[in-house]
């Protein structure tokens, strides 16, 4: 059988398996399709399908097919992160910067400290820090992974709960938006390479100048040209960031964040994001699943699961503690802190992208990556079942 046929078999499995599980088992209440796709990627990886059916796995997901799929996955996630950057609107957060900054800081720093504390203990054992990483880098990376809120998934869940357009929903967006910026700032800090710091400085200066040029250009061209030019801009900035020693995904976010969302029609922007989630992001989820590693024996697998549960506890307790602290300081109404804390607990996608970068740069090992991936899936799946019964007690008109 030719390479093209095998590639199409792999693509059919990637698209069909998660969809059938999502539709037939009706998982929407606790696991939206995007979460099922992430779980599907894990199950199709070497740790599950690779062990259950090694010959089939080796045949379908052979190196040539994976090379082709990885090319799709890289471009898919670059476009997705780019759109997340474009849609990041900090103007609303700026209008209420005092309350927003305090809440966002509590919601980010407390779980970061809890996660870093958990990592500080776990990472003293061998096998968790990658060959290019050091202890402080890995601890900060794991801590930040425990603190992340996935803004695109938060929007998706708010739409499912019918609170996205309410003042309360917009309040959640304000808090998550500031944390979204912090995520990429911390990632850039982790990736600082002192041997290539001159390249990174050159990239930042060049990017600042190029941003002024591209913004001036976008003001003078129509929307159809903006879409095409934005893709050229995305690929160029992604290349420059990767060349400097950062990562192409950091470049993708920066490429989007300097553009204004109002330069694109809202319907087209929403449609583009949904198109990415439907068509090419499942390939990224599969490539992510193929990078999981449960260890070579049962004991190692138990250690990975144990690490995932440790990170989950640190993440959930830290996030809830931070948001409840903000609620007390700002005198929120009873029940608001609990709902906000759980809604900001959603991690899938952005956290997975974040730890993919750490794995790419060999700051963490595949075992650490697997534990963090499991933590992201579990925390996201817990959100809707826990939040839904609490929403009736909240005034959605409180902004």
Strand and helix map with partners:
Layout (H helix, E strand, L loop, with lengths): L2 H23 L7 H11 L5 H4 L1 H7 L2 H25 L3 H5 L1 H26 L12 H13 L3 H10 L6 H24 L6 H22 L4 H22 L3 H10 L8 H14 L1 H9 L8 H33 L5 H8 L6 H11 L5 H26 L8
The largest pleated sheet is described as: none
User: Share of helix among residues?
Assistant: over 70%
Strand content: under 5%
Q: Indicate the radius of gyration in whole angstroms.
A: 21 Å
Helix and strand string, N-terminal first?
HHHHHHHHHHHHHHHHHHH
Separate helix tally: 19
Structural class label:
mainly alpha
Poorly predicted regions: none
How many β-strands, per DSSP?
0
Based on CA inertia axes, which overall geometry fits? globular
Please summarize what this structure is.
This protein has helices at 3-25, 33-43, 49-52, 54-60, 63-87, 91-95, 97-122, 135-147, 151-160, 167-190, 197-218, 223-244, 248-257, 266-279, 281-289, 298-330, 336-343, 350-360, 366-391.
């Amino acid at each position: 059988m030719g390479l093209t046929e095998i590639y199409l078999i792999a693509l059919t499995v990637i698209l069909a398996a998660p969809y059938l599980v999502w539709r037939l088992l009706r998982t929407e209440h606790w696991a939206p399709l995007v979460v099922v796709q992430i779980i599907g990627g894990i199950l199709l990886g070497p740790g599950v399908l690779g062990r259950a059916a090694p010959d089939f796995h080796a045949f379908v997901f052979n190196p040539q097919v994976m090379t082709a799929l990885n090319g799709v996955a890289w471009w898919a996630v670059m476009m997705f992160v780019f759109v997340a950057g474009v849609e990041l609107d900090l103007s609303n957060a700026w209008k209420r910067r005092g309350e927003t900054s305090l809440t966002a800081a509590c919601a980010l720093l407390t779980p970061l400290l809890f996660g870093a504390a958990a990592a500080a203990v776990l990472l003293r054992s061998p096998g968790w820090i990658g060959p290019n990483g050091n202890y402080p880098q890995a601890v900060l990376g794991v801590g930040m992974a425990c603190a992340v809120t996935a803004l695109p998934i938060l929007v998706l869940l708010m739409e499912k709960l019918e609170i996205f357009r309410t003042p309360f929903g917009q309040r959640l967006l304000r808090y998550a938006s500031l944390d979204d910026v912090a995520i990429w700032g911390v990632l850039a800090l982790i990736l600082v390479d002192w041997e290539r710091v001159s390249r990174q400085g050159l990239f930042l200066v060049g990017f600042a100048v190029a941003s002024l040029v591209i913004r001036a250009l976008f003001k003078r061209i129509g929307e159809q040209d903006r879409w095409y030019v934005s893709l050229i801009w995305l690929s160029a900035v992604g290349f420059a960031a990767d060349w400097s020693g950062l990562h192409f995904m950091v470049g993708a976010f920066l490429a989007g964040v300097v553009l204004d969302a109002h330069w694109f029609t809202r319907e087209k922007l929403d449609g583009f994001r949904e198109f990415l989630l439907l068509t090419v992001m499942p390939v990224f989820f599969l490539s992510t699943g193929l990078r999981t590693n449960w260890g070579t024996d049962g004991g190692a697998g138990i250690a990975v699961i144990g690490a995932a549960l440790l990170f989950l506890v640190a993440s959930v307790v830290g996030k809830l503690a931070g948001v409840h602290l903000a609620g007390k300081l700002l005198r929120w109404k009873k029940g608001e802190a609990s709902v906000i804390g759980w809604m900001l607990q959603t991690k899938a996608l952005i956290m997975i992208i974040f730890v993919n970068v750490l794995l790419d740069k060999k700051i963490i090992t595949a075992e650490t990556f697997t534990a963090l991936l499991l933590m992201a899936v579990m925390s996201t799946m817990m959100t809707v079942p826990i939040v839904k019964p609490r929403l009736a007690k909240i005034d959605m008109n409180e902004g």
